[in-house]
Specification:
Blueprint: H1 8-11, E1 66-71, H2 83-87, H3 92-102, E2 107-112, E3 119-122, E4 125-127, E5 131-135, E6 140-143, H4 147-150, E7 161-162, E8 172-174, E9 180-183, E10 193-195, H5 209-219, E11 222-223, E12 229-232, E13 237-240, E14 243-245, E15 252-255, E16 258-263, E17 266-268, E18 279-282, E19 285-290, E20 293-295, E21 301-303, E22 310-316, E23 319-321, E24 326-328, E25 336-347, E26 360-365, E27 373-385, E28 389-394, E29 407-419, E30 426-430, E31 438-446, E32 452-455, E33 457-464, E34 473-477
């Protein structure tokens, strides 16, 4: 794996076509994509095109000094514990006490294996300011199956379906800034692990968390499942070299904060597990996802704006398996801007051969109930295989009520290749209406399925093998340089 400082390519792209400048794009994809030279063009339809720079540059994280080490006292090989331990998880209090004691020191609470004991079983945890929880290689932190542990007072019953879905606390909830969730690596590349046990029966039932999500979909209800990691209103969370598996709902949800770094993280949940998003930066700034492997049953990335605008986001050198794609939306009502997505691979099946249930590659989705301005998004060096919707820019993702207006501008795809796409693969390139057309540049794009639907779009093209047409679609040849990326697709690593 080749490491690069996040945002390096983006910072090299700060010059814009509006000034008639040339941009030097450098970078080596983790999947061995070659360096590319690109010259943004200055056509009439793309005169204001600006290339995204993404998040402020961050360095590879490191594990802080140890404040306290806790030794495992449980052993399991099948995620199952005694009935008494399941009813009252034995490690909750001692882990929480250690986190509280070490808060504010900038140090770590380490969960370590001890002899044959390799497991910690805990109910929901609060992660306070300036402390990091570290799971050593060979140890796993398991989440409680007892829904009563997660119950939010006054809300729908956790572990049930209802008209609302806010009845469960997350497994790990941030309560302060400058915190971390990390693992150590073994010599064979194995890492510490956090297991949400979404595949296990909710205590007292014969239904798993994932089955509950499917039941909610069938009944047009909401599932009350816990997210694995959540932060709302705090800054500078680092998630590093840790395996996150089997989340009952979203794996990482980061809202209304500045400074999320996800580096060396391996998310592994089946493509069939509904609503198990990988990383969701919501209404946040300065977000970097780098050198990570993401497999789940919903969006691999979902950049959204439920509370305020989102900007300064970089998704790079990462690999996606069986997800719903690298997505922006569906909530964009407060505006999304300056998003750099570079040197990533997207595979339409997960490591067990399950096909994505909504098989997208690069995706912007919203509607007239939740839409807004999406501006300055750059995709650079993206490789797709086994994907259905290769480029999906869709302002009609759901039936909207007309209260908002989706508006997509300065969208640049510079370096995209698809191979072995599924039967019927296509691209959708749509603006909202003639007053709010899609502003798109396609450079160095080679799709093995060129079927495209488009409307209300101004598109500049260089070295691109699709030629969109449709209502109020203008396609203009632009000058440029560089080449289509060469692609290889790594297998999901063994955990």
């Amino acid at each position: 794996m080749t490491f690069r400082v996040p945002g390096l390519a983006g910072h090299a792209k700060a010059l814009t076509a509006a000034f008639g400048a040339l941009a030097l794009i450098t970078g080596v994809a983790a999947a061995a994509a070659p360096a590319v030279l690109a010259a943004p063009a200055v056509p009439p339809v793309a005169a204001a095109t600006t290339l995204a720079t993404g998040a402020a540059a961050v360095s590879q994280p490191s594990i802080p000094a140890t404040c306290e080490t806790l030794d495992a006292q449980l052993e399991t090989s099948d995620e199952v514990f005694s009935s008494s331990d399941e009813s009252s998880p034995p490690d909750t209090t001692r882990i929480q006490d250690a986190l509280n004691s070490c808060s504010g020191k900038g140090e770590a609470v380490v969960l370590a294996p001890s002899g044959s004991d390799n497991a910690f079983l805990s109910g929901p945890l609060s992660l306070p300011a300036s402390v990091t929880i570290v799971v050593d290689d060979g140890a796993t932190l398991y989440a409680s199956r007892n829904p009563a542990s997660y119950q939010v007072s006054g809300q729908a019953t956790c572990g049930t379906t209802a008209s609302t879905g806010n009845g469960c606390k997350p497994f790990i909830n941030l309560t302060g800034s400058d915190a971390g969730i990390m693992g150590t690596q073994g010599s064979n590349g194995s890492q510490g692990e956090i297991d949400g046990r979404g595949d296990q029966d909710i205590l007292g039932t014969s239904t798993t968390w994932w089955a509950l999500s499917s039941e909610a979909q069938t009944d047009d209800d909401q599932q009350n499942n816990p997210r694995l990691i959540e932060s709302d209103g705090y800054n500078n969370l680092t998630v590093y070299d840790i395996d996150l598996v089997n989340a009952p709902l979203f794996h990482i949800y980061f809202q209304s904060g500045s400074g999320l770094t996800v580096w060396g993280v391996r998310i592994k949940t089946p493509a069939t597990a509904r609503n198990t998003d990988g990383v969701d930066p919501d209404s946040s700034t300065n977000v970097t996802v780098n050198d990570s492997y993401i497999q789940d049953g919903d969006d691999g990335i979902a950049i959204k704006t439920n509370a305020s605008a989102a900007s300064g986001i970089t998704i790079e050198n990462s690999h996606f398996y069986g997800t719903h794609g690298i997505s922006i939306g569906s909530q964009t009502q407060f505006g999304v801007s300056n998003v750099l997505i570079e040197n990533d691979t997207i595979q339409g099946t997960d490591s067990s051969g399950n096909k994505s249930t909504s098989n997208n590659g690069i995706r912007i989705k919203t509607d007239s109930s939740d839409g807004g301005k999406v501006n300055e998004v750059t995709y650079d060096g993206i490789c797709e295989t086994g994907v259905q919707d290769l480029i999906d820019v869709n302002p009609f993702y759901a039936s909207g009520n007309g209260s908002t207006t989706p508006d997509f501008t300065n969208i640049v795809v510079d370096g995209l290749k698809s191979v072995d796409s599924v039967s019927g693969a296509e691209s959708v390139l749509e603006g909202f209406d003639s007053s709010n057309p899609l502003g798109l540049t396609l450079e160095n794009v080679d799709l093995d399925s060129t079927t495209t639907s488009a409307e209300y779009a101004n598109i500049g093209e260089y070295d691109t093998n699709i030629t969109p047409s449709g209502t109020d679609v203008t396609v203009t040849s632009i000058s440029g340089s560089g080449s289509v990326p060469s692609c290889s697709f790594p297998s999901y690593p063994g955990l």
